[in-house]
Amino acid sequence: MNEFIQQATHNLLSPIILFFVLGWIASVLKSDLHLPEAMVRGISYYLMASIGLKGGMELAHEGWTASVIWACLAAGFLGLFLPLIAFSLLRWLGRLSVVDAAAISAHYGSVSAVTFLAASAFLTREGYEFEGYTIAMMAVMESPAIAIGLLLATFFDPSGRKAEGGTPAGEVLREALLNGSVVILVGALIIGAVTGEHGAETVGPFFFDPFKGVLCLFLLHMGIEAARRFADFRQVGLFLTGFGILMPLIGAAIGLATGKLLGMSIGGTLLVAILGASASYIAVPAAMHVALPKANPSYSMTLALGITFPFNVTIGIPLYLFLAKWIH
Amino acid sequence: MNEFIQQATHNLLSPIILFFVLGWIASVLKSDLHLPEAMVRGISYYLMASIGLKGGMELAHEGWTASVIWACLAAGFLGLFLPLIAFSLLRWLGRLSVVDAAAISAHYGSVSAVTFLAASAFLTREGYEFEGYTIAMMAVMESPAIAIGLLLATFFDPSGRKAEGGTPAGEVLREALLNGSVVILVGALIIGAVTGEHGAETVGPFFFDPFKGVLCLFLLHMGIEAARRFADFRQVGLFLTGFGILMPLIGAAIGLATGKLLGMSIGGTLLVAILGASASYIAVPAAMHVALPKANPSYSMTLALGITFPFNVTIGIPLYLFLAKWIH
Amino acid sequence: MNEFIQQATHNLLSPIILFFVLGWIASVLKSDLHLPEAMVRGISYYLMASIGLKGGMELAHEGWTASVIWACLAAGFLGLFLPLIAFSLLRWLGRLSVVDAAAISAHYGSVSAVTFLAASAFLTREGYEFEGYTIAMMAVMESPAIAIGLLLATFFDPSGRKAEGGTPAGEVLREALLNGSVVILVGALIIGAVTGEHGAETVGPFFFDPFKGVLCLFLLHMGIEAARRFADFRQVGLFLTGFGILMPLIGAAIGLATGKLLGMSIGGTLLVAILGASASYIAVPAAMHVALPKANPSYSMTLALGITFPFNVTIGIPLYLFLAKWIH
Amino acid sequence: MPYDPKRMKKVEIVIEAVKLQQVLKIIDQAGASGYTVHESVTGRGHRGYRRGGGVSDLYANAMIITLVDENAAVRIAEEVRDLIQDYAGVMMISDVDVVWPDYDQDQ
Amino acid sequence: MPYDPKRMKKVEIVIEAVKLQQVLKIIDQAGASGYTVHESVTGRGHRGYRRGGGVSDLYANAMIITLVDENAAVRIAEEVRDLIQDYAGVMMISDVDVVWPDYDQDQ
Amino acid sequence: MPYDPKRMKKVEIVIEAVKLQQVLKIIDQAGASGYTVHESVTGRGHRGYRRGGGVSDLYANAMIITLVDENAAVRIAEEVRDLIQDYAGVMMISDVDVVWPDYDQDQ
Ligand SMILES: Nc1ncnc2c1ncn2[C@@H]1O[C@H](COP(=O)(O)O)[C@@H](O)[C@H]1O
Ligand SMILES: Nc1ncnc2c1ncn2[C@@H]1O[C@H](COP(=O)(O)O)[C@@H](O)[C@H]1O
Ligand SMILES: Nc1ncnc2c1ncn2[C@@H]1O[C@H](COP(=O)(O)O)[C@@H](O)[C@H]1O
Ligand code: NA
Ligand code: NA
Ligand code: NA
Question: What ipTM did this prediction achieve?
């Protein structure tokens, strides 16, 4: 327990989290501080390329063993299973409409790449190793959740989906898979795997060395955006707010079990917990919005960005690490 | 004297100043060279974060001694006192209107962060150390000058201020303090102080190592903007042009005396001279424009950006260093 | 031959080329991946500054020997001579209109800086040295081709040029020379030459160390753009498509001969081949478009960006290196 | 060249960014000769404050201008109206005199 | 859905960026249902050439469009006119047919 | 201040970016008191799809708004029409009520 408090403090007092807090405070104080649109997109692509390259190079190093295949299958399973839990909770406990429940569920089956990055930076700082293929797992989890979200909506409210004139499922999935961030993540993963350590010389000084500092700047931006979304939490109501904290805990628990079953290291297990616990706010919101026009998009954004993200990066990361060590 | 010429040459032939000159020449030749808006803002935030982190970490290292408190008090005093001198000169020698004199004065009580950065890069190159708390002094000087500018305008032309429908003083000060650049400077200062040397590992490769190169790019932009403002110097007239060079000399002299009295190193004393000599062109112009609508905003910008800034970065820095050494 | 295949593979599997391929694929799949406008311009300026500084510092190191003068004269000659060949082919073999032939020719007398950068990164990776003054040669080649393009159009269709209301030649040349990228390249070259190795400390960590990684990101963008232009290749027809591959081969041959005659190293000779083989798509297209309004601008862009550029970076670079070694 | 404009309908549509492509398709299908797009505007309306620039495109708006004849304007209006029943947007139509080049002369 | 537009006033305001918030407040207080903003335009007028993108926001312009009824338009016009006496800006008003969704149907 | 607008012509021009400066010169020479520019719009027309943001400015569009009297509008229309014979662009003219500050009062 003592160790948990210590590591939680380490995490909270790391520059990355402090920049997040700075952004949050700036937003609350109504400062005009905001990163330009082009910079946000640019940094976002940079981070995806960076983590993809790193993961690919690790994969090249570790080799495509059976563990990698198993891990990717497990990631696909998480992406399908977590939305089912979320949907059940939202529909039967929260009494949300089918489309709203389905839309929110899809977010929790997918992943927040920035939470993943913050967790991996935390691991490096604390001296834990982790498996490179966790990044491949992250890539796998981008799309199944969207598919399951659409299936849930169609299955439980078949008339609704049709009448609403939402974009066809196939096109939604295609667009989600071809989202710029996803393409650059997967592409960089392959480039990293192909070029291996040899490529690190070329890309390292730009994509690896300054990585954590760039992440600080991005978390400054995330702080501003999260605070803005958090301000809407009254609109989402008490039940959904609670869901935004409960669901990551459930996701983390399932992720931890998955990591343990896969025989991963402590660091790797933490990252799988993050895959389970975090909710997407990049590709999935737009995808669900065009697929399920009658769902209220502010529910998902407020939950994923305003509640779950801050919870995960501040308390979640050290908590899940504590639990990962405990079960190992 | 020989040494002064040598260091002035060093300064003029440094990449930082040469990029400034390149921007100036490009602007005069009407090249279409210009950094995109998003990039200027992004670099601007980066530089503020960088200098803030550096200052904070130095502070963590040096500890919060009495000198730091004294230095910050002295900075506040400079911010209040310099506008009084500037106002007297402008009003009674230059016969400017109350609002114009007050608006310009506020700029000279505040600071040009980029001049400060150029000076600190110069010191590093020439091998001088300087106190980390000079950066805290810079942060302190952001706002008192605006307050004093508003007071001067209200005191000497009470009817004017009211009738003009300017934004209330409190709101002006609030907005100036919450200007993005100021928030990121102060925030990074605190983050640096909290994380100390431990944080340097995380942020160093991004915020410290490439710093001087980024500064080159920014000075390229400053060169373009300064040349454009300088082109308006005929509109401001001979008196104001002279003021744009005299006032930094007065400010530097007072800054040098302050640094000496505070018992600072040669490098630190130079930086206090820069705090005195430089004029703000980021937060203060917009603040004074909304507060004193009847003041002509091009006066301040032409002076601060077109005359005082180029003077300081080219001749001022080595000159003040020469004087700092002379009084030590 | 074996060695050629090996080096071609090295080149194709380098991160730089793989990012180009990733961009191309993303574009073909209609992904929404695209770097923001501000980022493209920012990176473009960064790369120009970087290569300029590097070249200038090399020049300072090597000294302004007779070879440098000769090399620059030879570059001027290439810029004048290559368009003549291109024009003859296009006019008498391809039966294009005078203005179209003249406009396209000007592109091939100028240079693609990104191809040059990719080639120099390739050389570094493969362990070849090259003369710093090749960068000065690149700067020289920016404008003569535009002049010759205008001369060709006026000479062979004197009535046309006048009637068409094109911008006067002098102004076109002036604007092309003052194009932001050209100004920053030449400026950085001079700054590098003035500050020499001393300046490298200041600018190196930003302009040199991360250089190759930034180039990867830029080639991602080039891949997207090239694929988009390539899609228009049916509009340009079979003859022009063939020209887009034949002309670089001719240019490379002349470049190789020039490098050999100048007594340059293998690496330097390859770079001169690239100067000959590559076609401009930054400053020249806009220049020719305003100068020759009746010329179809999509011809040049499709050729230069959609055909010649991909050919050069994938196959051209290792091929010309093979040939450079062969003639040495 | 003499001043000889053509009276047309200027249709302006503010729509959330994720639906921009769909509106452009509607415009194309109505037979418009073209359109002009402001890719990033901000705004406030019945669905609250909307501003892009974040990690998601969800809150971004685009604005489209298309010059069409009256028939096409009506057709676009009907389809866009259905769309903005579910998505943030508004549409306005006015009369303008349009100056076109003489497309028969060359090109 | 049938084409059944509503005739309204389209008010367009160019204003210097530092006064954008104040104009939006004026618009809100006049009872407008919303507005659309182009955050960065450049321009020339009586106060010379204006272009943002520098270290200060001083020379940046924004452009606002709001669809309102005639009363609100007049009210906005009066207040904005006072503002542009001291700050760079211009304002124009025209008639447009606005297509709104049926806000009673859902949402 | 009382609502007392001036009826003027609102001239809007979409033009390829490389010709922006030339159009602004035409506007100046026609005696316009100013103009407002959207420096980056995208679009489709007779010359295909146009979007900037690449390595060259060749495919970028700009959009200009200028408020002028009828004479100037006609003069601009005639010159711009010649220009868009060779370069991508379109132009539209409409009536607006313009609210100007009282320029005699100060400044
Ligand atoms: N009255 C209005 N005037 C101008 N623009 C509006 C108005 N109402 C809505 N808009 C624009 O249309 C977008 C969507 O509107 P809404 O669907 O009502 O939220 C807003 O974000 C604004 O950009
Ligand atoms: N005649 C005009 N036509 C279009 N826009 C104008 C005109 N006059 C002024 N503007 C715009 O309004 C801004 C402020 O005008 P001013 O206060 O006259 O300097 C300018 O920067 C332009 O963007
Ligand atoms: N019918 C139209 N409606 C609105 N904008 C148009 C239209 N036609 C052309 N444009 C704009 O004018 C630009 C040039 O048109 P064009 O010369 O026809 O290719 C296009 O890229 C569009 O931005
Ligand atoms: Na998840
Ligand atoms: Na000062
Ligand atoms: Na060439």
Answer: 0.95
